[in-house]
Amino acid sequence: MKIVGHYINGQVSEAAERTQDVFNPATGEATKQVAIAAKETVEEAIAAAQAAFPAWRNTPPAKRAKVMFKFKQLLEENAEQICAMIGEEHGKISHDAMGELTRGIENVDFACYAPQMLKGEHSRNVGPNIDSWSEMQPLGVVAGITPFNFPAMVPLWMFPLAIVCGNTFVLKPSERDPSAAIYLAQLLQEAGLPDGVLNVVNGDKVAVDTLLTAPEVQAVSFVGSTPIAEYVYSTASAHGKRCQALGGAKNHAIIMPDADIDNAVAALTGAAFGSSGERCMALSVAVCVGDEAADTFIEKMSGEMQKLKVGAYTDSSNDFGPVITEAHMNKVNGYIASAEEQGATIVVDGRDPQVKGYENGFFVGGTLIDNVKQGMTCYEEEIFGPVLLVVRAKSMEEAMQMINDHEYGNGTCIFTRDGEAARYFSDNILVGMVGINVPLPVPVAYHSFGGWKRSLFGCLSAYGPDGVRFYTNRKTITQRWPSSGVREGAQFSFPSN
Ligand code: NAD
């Protein structure tokens, strides 16, 4: 069986004390194995990144950006191959994989602006004949740890920007769908990146812990589930590293009584079931204000759901594919069962869908559950499957309170025709990314992406302007050149204007 290895110092290596199966989730078969790095292998990658840092740091930003321009071109030329890798290991349908890759490429676009972003700030004459400026210097070796659900996009949130800012990078992708990350690294090398600037190690907790504790690693970007995000943040911080750790989500959409329900149903069909609900921005809870809105929404949504097509990534007419593993399929089915046991109403039951020719695949069909209440397991926890919950609220205030009380604060949206209500909502809701009649308010690459509460540990969001701040150290230099030697003498008072 093929082994997906590591990419260290410009070379693919299969060094592995251990390996783990990689599945095609549509067929349920293990199709390859992934190398699980030992501590020494990760240390080798860190050493390669450390050795590459001095020269890369001093490479002019415009030259670094040139590599990114070429990388973008190679990503576009090889898009189909990348999407096929994503489909085979993640199960995502090709149109969805292309959407993910396109959002990733937009981050490479943003990275091409590096010379502009790294110009810093300059003030002339902050005092008599004294100039002051701030530079954005690279940190050194930076690590990225990424989840399974966006095997190309989330790595592309991180390493292009970190690298263009002058850092070197060690990426630890998800061991469940590792191929795309290795291929991205090879394309970047083809684009002209010197060896050692980007390294990819596959692995599990051993690899992550090595990155979190290595003294050479200056900063860690993490995206994954909340318990691991919290662990990564606290461990990296305890070891003196800068850390941003993005976690899980439970994104609510409020459907107001005046909303265009057809529009809300169309928007939520994609946002709840697209990518099998395995998106941190998936809208998994519809909070309908008033029974009339709820009844109309449920009637129209259950009708729309009859058209949903679940199947393998190879057929682009499918709407969404399987979930990632058999264990995850069982977990999602378990949440549906728990909802029923705890008094909710299963309106559309997606358990055990029949997908012809893929009987052993990890499929869950679109599921709609009504009468969900706070405190139910399916409401409190992130399901990460194609399951849409409906909660009935009496007022907008009650609906907003529910969202504000939830432990997660990644994304949310409101469907309404009332501008004042929408403005009040966006102003007062305790969530990082807000949509108004927009179901998946994922910020574009020149903004930044981040949730609130337990959806993000750390104070800077991912990519965009926050990404530049995260991957650079500010240095402020104040300079004076006396006209002749030391003739002005010493000054003992605190300098001021
Ligand atoms: P995960 O937390 O299981 O894994 C993420 C990464 O952490 C992987 O690289 C994995 O190898 C590593 N890891 C797993 N267990 C570990 C441990 N015990 N110690 C150290 N490292 C460990 O997440 P996942 O299942 O791959 O991804 C799905 C989760 O990611 C969901 O909760 C989803 O909401 C979240 N997510 C969040 C965002 C965001 O931007 N907030 C984006 C995508 C996904």
From TrEMBL:
GO biological process: L-valine catabolic process; thymine catabolic process
Assigned EC number: 1.2.1.27
SUPFAM superfamilies xref list: ALDH-like
Keyword NAD: yes
Keyword NAD attributed: yes
Stored InterPro entries: Ald_DH/histidinol_DH (IPR016161), Ald_DH_C (IPR016163), Ald_DH_CS_CYS (IPR016160), Ald_DH_N (IPR016162), Aldehyde_DH_dom (IPR015590), MeMal-semiAld_DH (IPR010061)
Record keywords, A-Z: NAD, Oxidoreductase
Classification lineage: Bacteria, Pseudomonadati, Pseudomonadota, Gammaproteobacteria, Cellvibrionales
Molecular function terms from GO: methylmalonate-semialdehyde dehydrogenase (acylating, NAD) activity
Protein name: methylmalonate-semialdehyde dehydrogenase (CoA acylating)
Pfam families, alphabetized: Aldedh
Domain Aldehyde dehydrogenase residue range list: 16-477
Gene that this polypeptide is encoded by: mmsA_1
